[in-house]
Specification:
Elements: H1 12-16, H2 37-48, H3 51-62, H4 67-95, H5 99-107, H6 112-145, H7 155-173, H8 175-204, H9 207-210, H10 220-244, H11 246-249, H12 255-288, H13 295-299, H14 305-327, H15 329-338, H16 345-358, H17 361-364, H18 368-397, H19 422-440, H20 445-449, H21 451-467
């Protein structure tokens, strides 16, 4: 469906003077609608081909799955998350508005900050994780070129600070520089993945031995006990972007192109690159007797300095790209939404950089259980309900009709009670509480193991019930 100009025109001068408006949050006009199928496919290739995709799949091997179980889990999780991704993409492409502005329809003009800040804090955590991985890569690179560096007890911390500073510089360059990075990094990291796969194939004696490691689970119930939170974590991996995907689809030429580009690229790229992580990690079991799920640590064992240097430089470039594209664009807009007239996209990005350090990423990456069950499962319990509320509001309550100008004006249709839709807030609290109760009561642990699904469903139903009959059209 083409973008209807009548849906976003009019009132621009009126909303520009509003305290809820700035240029970065403004509806994207026709001149900015330049993204087609290729752009969205390239976006997902560039974001999916990254070290954390590799580590996600590798952590499943470390947790006890065989290669088929791990790859199927990743494919299934990404196919599931594609549904809310495309649903939340629709209003962005139709009205040209970013995620925090869209959230004003369901949470209220000021209440949207609750959803936006929750999403932003998760992004800050991911920013810190990616920066830590980049710092590890620099540390390993320096130790390869300068062996004495390996004796520096503060080497990783220093390199983390260096890579963090590089990210900050790119943020200050602006979003166009981000698009440039996306175009060059994915093929490079794909090459590194193929290099590791070739190394594993040669040293493990072919695909037979490297993929022969059996599952460590001795019964179906034992397997399901790991599968359920693993699948939830896989869905949670991209549940962040499934919320803020309007930040990108607002630049789409039409609905069809953005939907096709995402549907083609997301599940396929995630699955293919995950296979590399699974295969190489399975090979490390054969070669070293233990699963090494961190590719940077694996590269440090290589005997060829040239291969190590080239691979680590590629990892640094790709990690920088995905960190900025996936973990800065959204929180920068979200923080800007807190005070549009004072906080620009760049200032929001700077806030993200500092918050990323405060999230202590070294603890989040401590082991596979902390990463999958703690980090991914924990924030999925919060973001699932936000997705349920927004999707219910747009498709069920408002039937895809929004008054764009009113999303920027106090006292408008989305004012609710002092700028807050307390029904949306209540649905968020209830959905999150039900998902998290499994942490408190072991007998209902399944609620936390399926935190994204449970939170989404509960919040969706509660919001629909509370809003029933209140709005049929915006």
């Amino acid at each position: 469906m083409a973008i209807a100009a009548t849906e976003i025109k009019g009132g621009s001068q009126r909303i520009e003077s509003s305290p809820l408006y700035n240029h970065d949050l403004a509806p994207a006009g026709p001149q900015r609608r330049t993204w087609g199928t290729y752009n969205f496919a390239a976006l997902w290739v560039s974001m999916s081909v990254n070290i954390l995709t590799y580590m996600l799949a590798a952590s499943l091997i470390q947790g006890g799955m065989d290669w088929k179980q791990a790859v199927l889990t990743v494919f299934l999780g990404n196919t599931i998350v594609l549904a809310p991704m495309l649903l939340n993409s629709h209003p962005g492409a139709r009205y040209g508005i970013p995620f925090p502005v869209l959230a004003r329809a369901s949470f209220g003009l000021l209440g949207a900050n609750i959803a936006a800040v929750l999403r932003a804090l998760v992004a800050c955590g991911w920013f810190g994780i990616q920066s830590w991985i980049g710092g590890e890569a620099i540390n390993t690179l320096l130790a390869t070129l300068w062996p004495a560096w390996a004796k520096n007890p503060h080497g990783v911390a220093i390199c983390f600070a260096i890579f963090w500073a590089i990210n900050l510089v790119v943020v200050l360059k602006g979003i166009e520089y981000i698009r440039f990075l996306q175009g060059i990094s994915a093929p490079i990291l794909l090459g590194v993945g193929l290099l590791l796969l070739g190394w594993a194939y040669t040293n493990a004696g072919g695909f037979g031995p490297m993929l022969s490691a059996p599952s460590k689970f001795h019964s179906t119930s034992e397997f399901l006990k790991f599968l359920i939170p693993a699948l939830n974590g896989t869905v949670g991996f991209w549940s962040t972007v499934s919320l803020n995907i309007p930040d990108f689809t607002r630049f789409a030429r039409n609905q069809r192109e953005q939907a096709i580009g995402q549907a083609i690229a997301l599940p396929t790229t995630m699955t293919l690159y995950s296979f590399i992580g699974v295969a190489v990690t399975s090979a490390t079991v054969v070669i070293y007797g233990a699963a090494i799920w961190d590719p940077v640590q694996l590269l440090s064992r290589f005997h060829s300095p040239v291969a190590v240097v080239i691979s680590l430089l590629a990892i640094l470039l790709a990690t920088l790209n995905v960190n900025i594209g996936a973990n800065v664009v959204s929180p920068a807009n979200d923080f800007s939404n807190l005070w549009p007239k004072r906080i620009s996209f760049k200032i929001g990005g700077v806030i993200t950089c500092f918050m990323g350090v405060a999230m202590m990423p070294w603890k989040l990456l401590a082991n596979h259980r902390t990463f999958i069950f703690g980090w991914l499962g924990g924030y999925a319990a919060v973001l699932g309900p936000v997705a349920g509320i927004m999707i219910c509001d747009y498709f069920i309550v408002r039937r895809k009709v929004l008054l764009v100008d009113d999303l920027y004006l106090r006292g408008s249709a989305y004012e609710y009670s002092g700028g807050f839709n307390w029904k949306g807030v209540a649905a968020l609290v209830i959905g999150t509480a039900v998902a998290l109760v499994g942490l408190v009561f072991p007998s209902v642990r399944v609620l936390y193991d399926y935190s994204w699904f449970v939170g989404f469903a509960v919040a969706f139903v509660v919001y629909w019930a509370l809003m029933f009959g209140r709005v049929s059209r915006s």
